[in-house]
Design a protein that fits this description.
The chain contains eleven helices and two strands; from the N terminus they run H-H-H-H-H-E-H-H-E-H-H-H-H. By secondary structure, the chain is mainly alpha-helical. A two-stranded antiparallel ribbon has the order 1-2.
Amino acid sequence: SDVYKRQYQRRVRGAGCYAMHSSPSRGSPTTGVLSPAMSATAPVQSTPILATSPQQPLTPSDWHAESQTTLEAAANSFHQSMHARDMAASKQRDVELATCKFYQSSTEALRQKVLVMEAIRWVGIPIAKSIDHELLDINRTINKIQEVLKERESPYQATLTCIQLRAQRPARDKVEDEADECLEQQLVSLEIDATERLRRAITELEHMSNKMAAMQDSMEDDVNSKGRLVEVDVRCLDLQHGRPGSDQWNELDCAVAGWDASVAPWGSSQVQWDQILQQFDDNELPDQPGVISMPVMLTVASQICTELPSNVLDMMVAAADRDDDGTINHEEYVRSMRQFVLFQSAKSIVKECKRLRAEVDRVMHQLDMRIGSHHTKLLEALRASSATTCAYISQMEDKLSLNADEIERIHREIRKIDKKIGASRDPLRVAEQRLNIRERRPVQERWNDNPEEHLDTEVDGIKNVVCLLEDELENLVAMRTRLRATSAQLEEDINSKRVALDIDTSCFNIQTDWKEFLLKYEVVPAGTPASAPAPARPPRELPSKSEAAKASELVGNHPGWWCERAS
């Protein structure tokens, strides 16, 4: 190209020298020549070729003019081509710079988006993990309560059995003492305070577990959604100039899930969500309707999310401005508020779950202390009742022993009096016979002399003594009868109190091992008939003796018996 350029320049200089001496009527040689500066900016103009008649030959001046015109057109085309190439190279450089700048800006925006979304995602991941831990703690608490209820079944049956046993005491010992009151209090504590409250606690924990499970699903959906968003942005960042795309990026789930902005999200009531939407309408910018400022957004978020730290709120509010215009439009506001409500609801439900579990633990501890106090008081009451019954039994046994000794002494006195009465009857008979014999005296000799008077006195005295002894005997017999009745009453009371003592002792033993009651005892419902004893084995019937055995026994050869073989 340099060789052609030098040849062209020599031709132009030669043509210029010739044109200075040629006729100006054919055109000045300088009129068609463009300077380099002009050729760079002037548009391309086609130079007309002089039409000549084929019959007339060209003059030298016309030939030189046509040649110069051709050279000038070639020079203009060359300069225009160089200018076009320079412009194309400049535009290519501009395009490359603009493309690189656009790529850098989009990459930086994607990188910032990834960082923000990943930060928000890592705000939700610990909350989701805390929800998982709370679900496990709730399940452990429910299992613990169920184990406690299973353990309380044995004390409940033991207390109920003790109440039924004490109801079987004899009528004269069936008094409502402190042990009965303690048994009733313990039964109420086990049946109503413990069982019912713990069952209600299980119901509340299961309801909370269902809410936590729903919140867990929402948090997992949110975290997975942000994870997919981050994955999409990271794959966009992985795309570079000169690297072909891959079809495996189409594996992402791009399903669109629509939602209504006026419907409250999960974890928020419709009243609260309406108030949140009303906050946007009340705080719209006067010069820009349909948007609110970032400080207003931060204020509303602070009022809603009381459980999130301030740095997290600042980061999430900054991430809410997706178009980076410094304001929050309605769509950005709704999306961000749904995120805030979700995190706040998750935080609140985790806090509520911890409070509920702490309340259940406190109630369980309180019930254990109350039941333990009632149980200790019951054991003391049973011990005191048994001691009182033993004291009465001891005193009654002493009285019974004294009565038996007194009855024995009275019995001996009765025998003595019987002997004395028997001994007095013979002298009385003798005195009466002597008195009767003296009545046979002759009439003329009958008078009350001194012997007569003494005999009368003897008979009357012996009769008086016998009467006194018989009266004393009757008194002693009556006293013996009363003592025997008292002894029988004492024996009945002693037996009754022994039955009561056995019942109190059984209740005390049951309450001592009340946690192993169902393992050591079998609870039989009231009114269950007693099991019939096994029928006795019928006596074994021996086979009949053979005739030969009977004959041998008669002879005395063989004392036993045997059977004949079957033929």
